[in-house]
Amino acid sequence: MNLPLVLVPSPAPKDVLDAIRGRFDLLQPSNQEELDAILTDRGEEIEVIANPGEGPLGKDLLERLPNLRLIAHFGVGYDTVDAPEAVRRGVVVTNVAGSNDEEVADTAMGLLLMTVRELSQAQEHLRRGRWHEGPYPLTRFSLQGRTMGVLGMGHIGQAIARRAAAFGISVSYHARHERNLELPYYPDLRDMARDVDILVVATPGGASTRHLVDAEILRNLGSGGVLINVARGSVVDEQALIATLADGTLGAAGLDVYEDEPNVPPELLALHNAVLLPHVGSGSVPTRRRMAELGAANLQSWFTDGTVLTPVPEARVLTAQ
Fold this sequence. Notes:
Distance between the termini: 30 Å
Radius of gyration: 22 Å
Number of strands: 11
Oligomer: single chain
CATH topology of the largest domain: Rossmann fold
Structural class: alpha/beta
Strand order of the largest sheet: 7-6-8-9-10-11
């Protein structure tokens, strides 16, 4: 029995390969030259892509796959996929929404604690033997009495809000649409930034949210304000963030994502009031396994009966029954 043919256009991590190897006939180019050869020789055969998320899937690639019907993306954020163009061509796009919500929310709260209480800096104080010279200085900020605004109130935003409430932090939110939640809603992000002193970014990336957190938003948070970003680096104007952290207009920032990963600006690395993680929000073995299994389940469902489990919002017009 022949296995269903699936193109894996970019290098895939072990958890993804473990979930799909042996279940599908995988075309796995190791470089751009091999990918070009596959697209030239077999492009018309390929109906399904399993996208690990490493490289962009745009119009140029779509044009070389005239019979493509499904892009199964193995991440939650899918800004590397031109979903509107794919849907326009009748291609269903899925992601693994819901599989990493709790892990990313945990990371957001851990990053907040690290940033406000300078925990990573305090650890370095100890590791470098400086405790013998004196205690670590009292931190400027505390988490007590804080107010949080969450930018983006999807599943991850809601999981963050639940955790913040358990810490005694009052939470409000800004999103494109008000949700049926017992939380204050701000239709204008600028107003929310002015009224809170923690802003947690949990909104999808892409063109519609690029630099949504700009210099004005950062100034509105104020010198006691804290920015936490566990979403996409593109949502925050990185140069404006560096400038406001450097001159004290913004108090501190905790970042897990950056505009040009893995390249982090030296100016950001040099800032004492920035806590920086290397995009580890969902980076645990159990969560990555769960993400990979959901991506594989989307593929299996498609080949079984032409349905998918988690279409991205743009693709629901193609999957509505």
